[in-house]
Design brief:
Mean pLDDT: 91
Distance between the termini: 4 Å
CATH class of the domain at 8-17 and 52-132: Alpha Beta
Shape: elongated
Number of helices: 3
Radius of gyration: 17 Å
Order of helices and strands: EEHHHEEEE
Largest sheet: 6 strands, antiparallel
Length: 143
């Protein structure tokens, strides 16, 4: 894979399903009812669809990075900030851009801007990631 600064990183559009929100809330021990009870969401004036958990939203970006770089284990650093909510039934699109390339002594790494957008809506996460593009222990060409 030949990578240069400025290259886009494309993710696939995903429809956010409400069923996994209940399971994730249980796994995370998250007692906030906005993830499964539409009455709680409506009481807050947020509409009638449950709110997706932040870790699931971050996972969409991490999956995109892993598919691009050859595995989620290649993500060396990942930091995002939350800008808005994602609701059940919405379609989200992860994306990114290579900002810089360097050699960390083990191989080529890319510093990337990353984000998650609601399709036809707002950006709901943004941040940065550092991703190992290959292991260069044998001096091999990264392409």
């Amino acid at each position: 894979m030949t990578v240069t600064a400025g290259d886009p990183i494309h993710g696939r559009d995903l429809v956010v399903r409400t069923e996994p929100m209940k399971t994730m809330a249980a796994l995370l021990g998250d007692p906030n009812p906005i993830h499964w009870d539409t009455r709680a969401v409506a009481a807050l004036g947020l509409g009638d669809s449950p709110v997706n958990q932040g870790p699931l939203n971050m996972g969409y970006i991490q999956t995109m990075l892993g598919q691009w770089a050859g595995g989620r284990d290649r993500i060396r650093d990942f930091r995002v900030r939350f800008l808005g909510n994602v609701f059940g039934g919405q379609t989200v699109r992860p994306g990114g851009e290579v900002r810089a390339l360097s050699d960390d002594g083990h191989g080529l790494v890319a510093e990337c801007a990353v984000w998650l957008d609601v399709v036809d809506g707002a950006r709901v996460l943004e941040g940065r990631a550092v991703v190992a593009l290959h292991e260069d222990r044998k001096g091999s060409d990264p392409g």
